[in-house]
TrEMBL record:
GO terms under biological process: isoprenoid biosynthetic process; ubiquinone biosynthetic process
GO cellular component, as recorded: mitochondrion; transferase complex
Tree of life domain: Eukaryota
Organism field: Brassicogethes aeneus (Rape pollen beetle)
SUPFAM superfamilies: Terpenoid synthases
Protein name per the record: Decaprenyl-diphosphate synthase subunit 2
InterPro entries, A to Z: Isoprenoid_synthase_dom_sf
Length: 397
């Protein structure tokens, strides 16, 4: 009997069709992914229900239903919003952030008396903390939707109308989610939390202005400096912006700052904010911030490593840690990267070259560094099921 072959097909740069067997990826998942998924499931039991439900209240309404109808009209246009919508429905990277905020909430406990009306007794947290977890997920989601905007200046005239319509839907959808986020934040009636979450939105915006960038405004790494410096990226607990001075070109510092601005600040300040809602001291809130920041960066290294697994094909971020560490090792390869400024990227070649260098091993070291820091910070929390769940999630990355 002939064995059944499962094939995954994609187009190469010269439009040729290439198929590879996906039987292994169909039958089994990498051990790390299985462990991480199990850690997430166990953590969801601690907080009471699957965190995919966090966004359910937001998504099951007439406005989002109308958006979905408009997105259907984009089928056949190749607008990035289609892939974004698919990924948001199929992947769990965003919901896990809400889960982390809930776990930090429960691990931190309540530092003063709250009425029964304010508490979710079954989960052991405040209703306001659950709202903040929802806000965390939806701000991140809105940012992902906004990033699916497409530069159509050089498109052919017959494509412009459909693609421009897709841009309008992406822009308005992201704006709608943000407006709901800040309406919910206002309902918490906590000015400090409102302020620090607003600064994380500023950080997300600033991440989009760090150059160099290609014609579609996708980020490219800066040219690596001949002498590398480990420039420390400070913890910004308040409203001060991050500084770019001496960061660009220093691989580790540049990667760290780009991804703090691109999302790490959001998770960090939501973890800080949830402890503020529970009445904790400023010092303990700062512990929540540093925990969230290190978990976010460790999570990002995991995403960056997944890009280079055998069964992953197609486009990826050129500011991923393996690419940037490879550039530090081989600065001459930067000419290949900067040539992508016109938007034409040979991802297969870049993936092959990076896998042959030290980029993956250096990224694993960076991941271990952030995980170890997160575990160390977690020691400031009292022992509980939530603390154990956070520990298991960190170690499963």
């Amino acid at each position: 009997m002939k064995s059944m072959q499962l094939l995954k097909c994609f187009k190469t740069k010269n439009q040729a069709i290439r198929c590879v067997s996906s039987l292994q990826s169909f039958m089994t998942k990498p051990r790390e992914e299985v462990l991480c998924n199990q850690a997430v499931k166990d953590a969801e039991k601690i907080v009471g229900y699957p965190t995919s439900f966090l966004s359910l209240r937001w998504l099951l309404n007439d406005e989002v239903a109308n958006i979905a109808l408009h997105i259907r009209k984009l089928i056949g246009t190749n607008h990035p919003l289609l892939n974004t919508a698919r990924d948001l429905l199929l992947k769990r990277d965003v919901p896990a952030w809400g889960l982390i905020v809930l776990l930090v909430s429960k691990a931190g406990g309540l530092n003063k008396h709250f009425s029964d009306m304010e508490c979710d007794i079954t989960a052991g947290i405040l209703h306001s903390q659950r709202v903040l977890a929802e806000v965390t997920v939806m701000i991140k989601t809105s940012n992902i939707v906004h990033n699916s905007l497409l530069n159509i200046d050089n498109m052919q005239s017959e494509d412009v109308v459909d693609l421009n319509f897709g841009n309008k839907i992406a822009l308005l959808s992201g704006d709608y989610l943000l407006s709901i986020c800040f309406r919910e934040l206002a309902g918490l009636k906590n000015q400090k939390v409102n302020e620090i979450i607003s600064t994380s939105l500023r950080d997300l915006a600033e991440a989009e202005f760090i150059e160099p960038r290609d014609k579609q405004n996708r980020p490219l790494p800066a040219k690596p400096l001949s002498v590398q410096q480990d420039v420390e990226i400070p913890n910004e607990y308040g409203t001060e912006p991050f500084q770019l001075t001496k960061v660009l070109g220093n691989t580790k510092s540049e990667w760290t700052l780009r991804h703090i601005l691109g999302g790490g600040s959001l998770l960090a300040k939501c973890c800080q904010g949830t402890l503020q809602l529970a009445g904790h001291s400023d010092n303990f809130q700062k512990i929540g911030y540093t925990l969230g920041r290190n978990i976010a960066l460790a999570w990002q290294t995991r995403i960056d490593l997944e890009i280079f697994q055998e069964d992953n094909l197609g486009p990826f971020s050129l500011i991923s840690a393996p690419v940037m560490f490879h550039l530090q090792h081989d600065p001459s390869f930067y000419s290949e990267i900067i040539s992508c400024v016109d938007g034409k990227v040979d991802y297969e070649n870049i993936r092959r070259v990076v896998k042959s260098g030290p980029g993956l091993s250096e990224t694993k070291k960076l991941q271990s560094e952030f995980c170890d820091k997160a575990v160390s910070i977690l020691g400031n929390f009292t022992d509980s099921d939530a603390k154990k769940a956070l520990f298991n999630m960190i170690r499963a990355m």
